[in-house]
Amino acid sequence: MTYQKAFWELKKTFSDFNDGLIYQILEFLSGENKTWLIENWEKPMTNLAKFAEIYKLLLSGYPFAYISKNKTFLGHDFYVDESVLIPRDETELLVQEATKWLKQYPDCKVLDLCSGSGIIGLTIKMNHPGCQVTLSDLSAPAQIIAAKNAQKLNLDVAFLTGDFLEPSLENHQKYNLITCNPPYVDKTDKEVGASTIFEPEMALYPPDLSQPLYFYEILFRDVFKIINKGKPFALLLEFGYDQKEKIEKIIFRTSWLKGSNITFFQDWAGKWRFVKIEGELKE
Ligand SMILES: C[S@@+](CC[C@H](N)C(=O)[O-])C[C@H]1O[C@@H](n2cnc3c(N)ncnc32)[C@H](O)[C@@H]1O
């Protein structure tokens, strides 16, 4: 089978894969880049057994990112495996907004809460090396992956391991920017992506399944305790495509947020996906 034939075979079978992903699969198989593939389109593939093996895995719904152990996020390659959520493209928008906010406050303290593979905090550190960035997650295996990514990208960041806000509270840490992409998936939702069956449950679902916004309730109740007072702060928080109204309700009944600027953002598909809350708390 030629590379060209393999391309069309993948395209026909996996109609939801875009061309970029199919090229990534062929790049992974050949060990060559896209230019080489196009120049050698008519050449027979040398590793048909590997192609067959990957094809079978993909047919079972197994995500390509776990096969290649890589996910590109805002142009940088991050190591991923089954101990972490596969970073979603829409999270790039949240990180771009964080990067924009930090232009005004380039050397402040940043917390990436529920950090997983580290994509949010590590990309922020790359864009603003003057910031002190902390990555916090309950999952020790996820923290190992985040540390591996920090080392690979040569980034000096701090790590906290523990339950949500607890490690920051215990260590009396205060931050100006807090990003958070917590587990918020509703288990009854039929629209969740196919990859979720292979991803860690604790990265997707809150501990109380009847309460998808479990982490938001805790966050809005307690996060002010870890915000640096007397200085501008921002919270950038990702949520599910159908959760904006519920998040709004929690925000509007949170008294310490009165007077803050609140902006909701949509993804490329026009779905509401994250909120930015800016303000300053009195000392
Ligand atoms: C939706 S994933 C986000 C991962 C990464 N920030 C991203 O955007 O790809 C949620 C993360 O929250 C972590 N997590 C789950 N329960 C937690 C808890 N109680 N405290 C801290 N982190 C938790 C999971 O281990 C997982 O890494």
From TrEMBL:
Pfam families: MTS
Species of origin: Entomoplasma freundtii
Domain of life: Bacteria
Official protein name in the record: peptide chain release factor N(5)-glutamine methyltransferase
GO molecular function, one term: peptide chain release factor N(5)-glutamine methyltransferase activity
Keyword Ubl conjugation annotated: no
Listed InterPro entries: HemK-like, N5-glutamine_MTase, RF_methyltr_PrmC, SAM-dependent_MTases_sf, Small_mtfrase_dom
Domain Methyltransferase small residue range list: 92-191
Keyword S-adenosyl-L-methionine recorded: yes
Swiss-Prot/TrEMBL GO biological process terms: methylation
Coiled-coil stretches noted in the UniProt entry, renumbered to this chain: none
